[in-house]
Batch of 2 targets.
Target 1
Amino acid sequence: MYKYLLWDIDGTVLDFLASEAYAIRTLFRKYNLGECTEEMLKLYSEINAKYWRMLERNEITKPQVLIGRFLEFFSIIGVDANVAESFNNDYQLTLGDHIEFIENAKEVLLLSKGKFVIAAVTNGTKVAQEKKLRMSGLDKIFDAVFISEDVGAEKPNEQYFNYVFENLGITNKKEVLIIGDSLIADMKGGYNSGIDTCWFNPARNPNTVGIPITYEIDNINKILYIVNKGE
């Protein structure tokens, strides 16, 4: 039976794409960059996801992610790349100004609180995540929060997970379940660290990483059946 539930934040508990769209559109107005079209948003989202996947594969550093994504995006749409660093700094803070929960996520967390140790495990930036946690009230729900910048390593690296295990006092990995939407950061990271995994996959995408996944769900409320079935 599980005692520890490790929750990814963006794309699992909070709707990151909604926050992303809000932040980009807000900053286009602030920087007088004209209209941010749906096509531009889709392009940025694809570029951003590509850079984070490279980080998960240890191909680039987080600073290269944060600035590089905007340098590439602005170069394609014809915006002066000199604003990339300032734009990124504002973007980190603006992400927390628009909070939307993934369907059923908050309810599941509240029902789990007190029955399990629930911890946030995130690669998001410290500036962005602390504001999102505060604005969403998640800082009052989670028993612990592990932001990769504080840990000194990113998911899926074992150093990250070992830090979490040590700080939560975990000695039996069979009591741990990670819930997340990323095949690399969450599923591969959890598998390589010896814990059970639950892939939140509402789009029902194929498993392309070639590792076994303990559970796969398309709705967060299915977590309750998984974690309570041993009662």
Target 2
Amino acid sequence: MAHETVREIPGPVGALESRLDLPDRPPRAVAVIGHPHPLLGGTMHTKAVYQTAKALARIGVAALRFNFRGVGLSAGTFDEGGGERDDFRAAIDFAAARFPGLPIWAAGMSFGSWIALSVGADDPRVTLLIAIAPPVDRYAYDAVKASTKPKFIIHGEEDEVVSVREVRKLYGEIPEPRELVVIDGADHVFDGKTSLVGEAIEDLLGDFEKDVTGNTKSTKDTKAGKVD
């Protein structure tokens, strides 16, 4: 697996610090990944984000994770979500230019999932949405409810920030194709279980191209937990 550090993604208010994980073969897609809330310690190095990027690279997807404005070496200051959506769009622009013609996937964890899905649902270049620990009771996911793009949600069974009950409620309101994985015993940051986030990504998306039929895949058990 190759690694390429990219420190000069042009953002709306300056450069965005980034990291690009490349698969060991020509990529079949490129995923842009947003991290948890900047004011609560979220960065592109958050463990579950890291595991997501590595898992995507293992299944042949280039993974671009980056720091939102004001985090790490990224220019700017926190902007309550508006500027962060612009940052995510800039990262999509970079991915589209770096990998012309490849499908683009929008992914994010917690706050980053709200940003990724809000932007990705409306961007015609984005073909697939991934939400990890989405705080559905704190932010509006209306764009996702109207999107017919494939949607994949990974959540902790014991998430103390947003209950799995609330996530299941959102899941019931979004159209197919969709899948939900609940990781047994995991909290909001998947403490001690971040490797299972990576396993869930591989289980869900490792053969995704073979499963694009407009319908969900069959319910199955995974190493990570339960698939609904």
